[in-house]
Each structure stands twice: as structure tokens, then as C-alpha cells.
Amino acid sequence: MILKIENVIKRFNNHLALDYLSLEVNKGEVIGLLGPNGAGKTTCIKSIVGLLSVDEGEIIVFDMKQDGKNQKIKSKIGFVTQEITIYEDMTAKENLAFFGSLYGLKKTELESRINEVAKIIGLEDRLNDRPKHFSGGMQRRLNIGCSILHNPELLIMDEPTVGIDPQSRNYILDFVKKIAAEGTTVIYTSHYIEEVEAVASRIYIMDQGHVIASGTLKELIARIKGDSHILVDVKIAREDKKDELLALTDVKEVVIKDNQYHIIVPGGISIIDKIVSILAPLGIVNVNSKQPTLEDVFLTLTGKQLRDEVN
Amino acid sequence: MLKFYILRSSRDIFGHLILILLPILLISFFSYINSSYNIGAITPVLTIGFALTFQIYGSAISFETLGQDFLSPIRNRLLATPVNPVKVVLSILFSGIIVSFLQTFVILMFSITILDIKFNNLFLILLVMLISVIFNQLFGTLILFLSKNVKTANSVTTLYGIAAPILTGLYFPLPDNIITNLFEKYLTPMALAQTAILGIIDNNLKNFIIGIIPLIILSVILFLLIKLLSKKVIL
User: Fold this and answer.
1) Which residue of B has its CA nearest to A80?
2) Among residues A61, A111, A182, A268, which is most buried (max CB within 10 A)?
3) Nearest to A309, CA basis, from A168, A140, A162, A169
4) Helix (H, G, I), strand (E, B) or coil at A162
5) Is there a contact between B153 and B143 (Cβ–Cβ < 8 Å)?
């Protein structure tokens, strides 16, 4: 086992950021960490990396206790920060060289790793350019490159695709699949469920500081397979109608997004006529039902739509 | 690491232009308008005064880099590496000291080679300049660590950079009384450095010691304060 988090509590004044959080990561896994804003994902990641100390519980990384000072742990972890944390006034090569040197890489080894990593992140022709002239996607790739020079055994990626074009996003997702295939363990957080679906071998869903569900994509979807998802498009959605829908005994969850009501009801319950009668005054445009996805798992478990959290 | 930070500091061409060209222009200008007097006596004082003044502004080399690295998201990346963050802070301070001292050196060399000024015991003058550079870099860093804000550090050092040369009588003669005399010679770190250097130039050992010893003590105090604060600010 690469990582074991056991009953971890972390408080910021009166706010409980991690509430008896427990999770495990095995070697070679790609773990998708999902959760709305404030779920505790970033606190969890910072605690694993050693940037935050925990109040209670224990974090064991590579069979060593993470106390924030253990340099052996730090030297085996690569951390891709959510923000782009590179030096814009230094060339891509200088950035790679600097961060590589912080992990103890020297001259020949550093030089060869810079060339290898430049190829991996697709910047081999731009090594002598400064990142301020790069596109957002290229800066993101350099941001990742600076974290993998030392061949980390565990790569932690905190929202690595925020604000980039689809091409660069695909590049990064392919990169994650590739390094995972080579044996690197990855913890990947994202607001984009389809990204987690694409790369993760196992998924943890967090809310309010603890894990509310975990498993493979198939296992998670199986958990809510009994539910029906009804999508009703109306001309103008209203919040008070959501409350009316929730008042129906068989409605488990309702989320409004772009004039669409997403209603979750237990499978086999015939409730559509009641829903239609409540929403009819808003001008129903379309009524649909669909197969559950990871997004629906998230919605059912947290009552929130993940993508809305970033807007 | 030190090499990287020196390289980073050296990239700020605009900063170098201000911190080297501006004092050179000011020394030349004031030397010219005072050329009816004995230029051999005034220009060394102007050179020392402006070199010391622009060292104060040069303190930004360290604190701006520290701000970029430890008061921004880059902090998380740096702290995630196995490198001791104190080592990073020291590298930034060392690079700031080296770059600022080189700027001072260029200003002195300009006066020596172009304005044909002769300094006796140049080595000792450079030593005092170095201690003054160290003091200023530490001073800016302390303000940054206290305020946790680069803009505040910039404002405080700029204010000091404006006030200190006025109080040492660099721009215009001060009224001759006990208070202004104290400020002119002893009551600001810049005045202490100037007193020490003018002591070297005048072969006045007493002034040299009166200037240099408090400056060293102040630098040590600043270093200890920074060491105390750095854990709170960085970690």
C-alpha cells in the first residue's frame, strides 16, 4: 500500500475540514478524488503532501508517518498544484532545471531528465522560451513537467486541467494513463467527472470532510442503479417548484440547471404525472429519462452537481 | 539553487537600469552643478551617498523574490519538495545581497574610472558597502515578513529611501544644530554607513568604528528577527 489515511481530523478554527477521513491507495492505482468545493479535497491533498499537519488520525505514506518534515516521503511524491506555479520570467528549461534540482537531480541526470520530460509534455521545441509566451495549456503541461522530473512514485494532481483547451486536456489525460501504465500511482482531483471517469481505476467521493462512497466506476453506478433519473426541460425554472417536487414522498433529489429539473426517484415508482402537474405552469418543453452515470452517483450522494461548483 | 536565484534577479533589466543608471546620472548631474566647487571633494561624497541610497531601493531584490515564492501558490510547490525552506530563503537573501552589491560596485567603478575619483582603502569601503547591502536586504525582508505584503514592504522601503538621504544631507545642506547633526551622522542606518565610509576616506578610525559597529549589530538583530519570523511566515 502506498498511502493510508486513517480517521484524520483537520480543523481550521471552528470549521471541520476533514472529518474522520479514511482512504487507502495501492501501488499502481489511479485514484479519482471527487467532491464539491469545501468537500475537503485540497485539505486532504495538502495533508498527504505534508503541507498541512492533521489534528487527529494518521497519514502513512510509503510506510512512513507523514509529519510534514519527512524528506524521504517528499522526494517520492510529485505534486501538481491547482494553480500554475512556474516562473514566467525563466525559460521552460530553467524552470524544469530548478525544480529538478530541488529534488536532488544533478548535471547529467538532470539534463537527460529535462529532455525526457520535455518530450512527455510536448514542449521539446519550446524549452528555451519563457512561459509568459505560452498558451494556458502549454503552461499547464510545464506545470506538470516540473512535478515529474524526479520520477515520483506517487503523483498528486490537483485539478490539473482547469482553464485549458480540449486538446491540452486530452494530452494531459493521455499522459496520466501513460504514466499509470508505467507503474506510477496517481491521485487525481477534478471538477470534470468525465476526466475522472476516463483515468481513474478507483474513485473516492468526498463531501463535508469525509468519504461518502468509493469504488470502481462500475461499483459506484451499481449503487444507484435502482434509481430513475427524470429530466424535465421548462421555459423558465423556479426554485419554489423544486421545493414542491421535494415534498413528494418518492422524490430523492432535485437539481436545477439551465432551466432543466434533474429529478431522482426510486426505480419502479410511477411519479411522472405528479411531476408534470407541478412543472406544467412553467411551460414544459421536454421530458426525458436516462441511464445513471458517475455524475448521477455524485448527485444522488451529495445532492449537488459537481460542475456547478466551479461556476 | 543560488545560481538560479542570481539568474532570476539578473533578468530584471528595468530594475538594474533604475538601480545603476539613475544613481550614475544623479552623481554626474550633482557633480556637474557643483563643478565650480572642488569636484574632487564633492563627488566622492555624492558617490557614497547615492550608492547607499539606491541600496535601500535594491532591498526589493530579495523581498520581491521572497514574496513571489512564499506569498503565492508557488509556496506550496516549494514546500512539497524535500528542500529545507530555510535554505531557499537564504539563497534568495544571498542572491539579493550579491546582485545589490554588484550594482553598488558598478556605481563606484563609474566614479573611479569615468569621474576620475580616487578612494583610499577601496577594499574597506567596499566592505562597509557590503554590510550596508546586507542590512538593507534584511530590512526589506523583515518588513515583508511583518506585513506579509510586498506592496507594504515596497512602500516602507521607498519611504525610508526618500527620508534617509535627506536626513544625511545628500540633496541639500541641513541646518546646523544638534538634532540634524545626529541624524546626519548616526540616527539612520544609512547615516551610520556613510559615517563609517567617510571615516575611511578621512582616515578617521573613530568615525569608522562608530559607524560600522552599530550597523553590524543592527544587521545581526534583523537576521535574528527574520529567523524568528520565517517559520511563522513560510511554514
Assistant:
1) B77
2) A61
3) A162
4) coil
5) yes
Which of A78, A231, A236 lies closest to A160, judged by CA? A78
Residues 75-104 of B with CB under 8 A from A: 76-83
What angle do helix axes B22-33 and B85-113 make, rounded to 10 degrees? 30
Q: Alpha-carbon dihedral of residues B39, B41, B46, B49, nearest 10 degrees? A: 180
H/E element holding A31? strand A30-34
Strand order in the sheet with A56-61: A15-25, A3-12, A56-61, A64-65
- What gap in Å lies between CA B34 and CA B23, rounded to an integer? 16
Angstrom distance (rounded) from CA A144 to CA A138: 10
Pick from A46, A49, A98: CB nearest B4: A98
Contacts of residue B8 in chain A, CB cutoff 8 Å?
A: 87, 89-90
Q: Cα(A234)–Cα(A283) distance, rounded to whole angstroms? A: 5
Structure confidence by residue, pLDDT tens digits, B31-87: 888 776 665 578 889 999 999 999 999 999 999 999 999 999 999 999 999 999 999
- Residue A229's H or E segment, with its range, is strand A227-234
Residues of A near B (CB-CB distance < 8 A)?
46, 49-51, 71-72, 74-75, 77, 79, 81-83, 85, 87, 89-90, 94, 97-99, 101-104, 146-147
Residue B170 confidence (pLDDT): 86
Burial of B173 (0-12, 13-18, 19+ CB in 10 A): exposed
ipTM of the complex model: 0.85
A180-231 confidence digits (pLDDT tens): 998 999 999 987 888 888 899 999 998 889 898 899 888 887 777 677 888 9
Give the mutation candidate from B1, B2, B4, B61 for the A interface (greatest A CB count, under 10 A). Answer: B4
Yes or no: domain A3-221 corresponds to CATH 3.40.50.300: yes
Is pTM, for the whole model, over 0.80?
yes
Strands A210-215 and A284-290: unpaired
Phi first, then psi, for residue A231 (nearest 5°) are -110, 125
- Residue A142 contacts residue A168 (beta carbons within 8 Å): no
CA angle A13, A19, A25 (to 5 degrees): 125
Which CATH code, of 1.20.1250.20, 3.40.20.10, 3.30.70.100, 1.10.10.10, is assigned to A227-291? 3.30.70.100
Mean pLDDT per 10-residue segment, chain B (235 residues): 88 88 92 71 89 95 94 94 92 95 95 89 95 97 95 96 92 87 91 95 92 96 93 79
Domain boundaries, chain A: 3-221, 227-291
CB contact at 8 A, B51 and B131: no
Length reported for chain B: 235
